[in-house]
Backbone:
């Protein structure tokens, strides 16, 4: 009975440490850089909101 308890505690510690390691490593992998060839523009959008244009 004691061996089952020890095995469960060790298994819980292994799972917990693997989860923490995965959370710390998450998002730190290789991501491509954002590139922008053209300046951003609003194209055909109005410069004044519609609620102000109604009055």
Residues:
């Amino acid at each position: 009975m004691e061996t089952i308890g020890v095995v469960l505690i060790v298994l819980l510690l292994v799972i917990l440490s693997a989860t923490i390691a995965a959370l710390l490593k998450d998002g730190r992998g290789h991501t491509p850089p954002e590139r922008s060839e053209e300046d951003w523009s609003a194209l055909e959008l109005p410069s004044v909101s519609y609620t102000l244009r109604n009055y």
